[in-house]
Amino acid sequence: MKSHLRALLAALALAASAASAQQLIPTNVRLHEDLNWLANRNIIKINLSTWPLSADEIRHALDNAQPATVNDAEIVQKVRQYIDADNNRLKLSAHITAQNRGERPLLPIGMNQPRDQYGVAAGGHFGTEKFDLNVQAAGVGGDTLGRNSHLDLSETYAGLKIGNQWLSLGQQSRYWGPAHEGSLILGDSARPFVALNLQRGVQKPFQSKWLSWLGKWNYQMFVGQQLDKENMRSPRHTKLMGMRVTLSPTDYLDLGLSRTAQWGGQGRPQNWKALGNAILARGDNTYTAEERRKEPGNQLAGFDVKLKLQPLVGAPVSVYGQMIGEDEANKMPSKNFFLAGIDGSHKVSEQQTLNWHLEGADTSTKFGKLVGVTYRHHLYQDGYYQQNLPLGHPLGGDVRSVVLGINSSVFHNDNKKWFKTHHFGGKLMHAQTVRKNKDQQTSVQGASVAWEGDVNTKNRMNMRVGANGWYAKPEQGKVQSGVGVKTSLSF
Fold first, then answer.
1. Cβ(362)–Cβ(164) under 8 Å?
2. Which residues form the signal peptide (predicted)?
3. Which of 23, 61, 126, 325 could form a disulfide bond with 44, CB atoms 3.0-4.6 angstroms apart?
4. Residue 273, CA distances (Å) to 269, 300, 301, 321 in order
């Protein structure tokens, strides 16, 4: 234990003297909303559907930004400061949530939702343009389901840049898709697991005249091992791999293709042949006892699309959708489920921005024609979950939901004010389970609010504080509510 503590302190000491900012940016709701505001208004050209997102790509987009107003320039500078300064420091943070004891929140939607009732974390970064080491260690606790340890090393990783590719190893959060409230195939609800990850730095187009029409493109590939829990029904040490490719052939269109697979694990084939079968989907969906024993694993695949209207009709609005198949038929996704949404980004004043989104998801198969299929598998009986939390959409399988979300950022240049920025957010949600017997369906309505502010300090310390609250009323059962506070310091 002492040796681990010494190693952590040494890493933090290196991080505190770092000369380069973090290069692989994890899911971050405020950063996502600021970048989405700029992208929806066509001030920057960037695809925001694959996280972690390379800082190289964000800088490239900012360097080519075309701000038309003071407001635009302020947001560009705010994002650049986060990437090049705020993200290159020794960081301390803490959060605590008061909620109904022993219950999972009924509103687990959106990026960066707390997985634990309380926690204290310390971390830092060390790196160069070619090397990236991020260390974050947290002590967590409370009534979180499925947790085996009070130590959390989420977002700890080491990365190496080879040409325009980043190769990294560690516990990195991933989020695949254009939606705000969840990804049908890979989100950040569950705690990140250790994985080897490969992705591009800058999403440059192909140089070939035969392929350049595809526009900016990116890929992300990973292979890792899921976290175990007590009383597992799935094989312990289940492996998970994923592959995603995105294309932006024009300024107004983003396309994505994704595929993941659970394979291997204790008592299952996990040699090179089994990996090859999982990659090629060879032997999937077989039926004899012997074939089922050799089946490579549980696979999901599908596509997503985002259409930006600003370049087309001058409206800072985008529409998006995602379709994922639980199974495969004739080499194409089948037993599909869906998500669709619309979002907008508007200027309130020279010091305030406004983002909104309306998003609906249906994780039942074929719009409810089949239930008990999405995120389920006969070999991996815990399903497409990790420690009871979904690897895909945060509401899990066989749920329909509609969410209206609004958030706004306000920033000041007056050093006499207590806060230099404010970020407000709110959501209204309706969700309903899908069952074969409609009399067994249940629904829940809820609302949540959040605020976050950057304290106007005059020294080299940055301080951020925040608070949130939520209320959920199920059709049957007791009302659930909670409040939370958090703070972070960076030096």
1. no
2. 1-21
3. 61
4. 8, 20, 21, 35
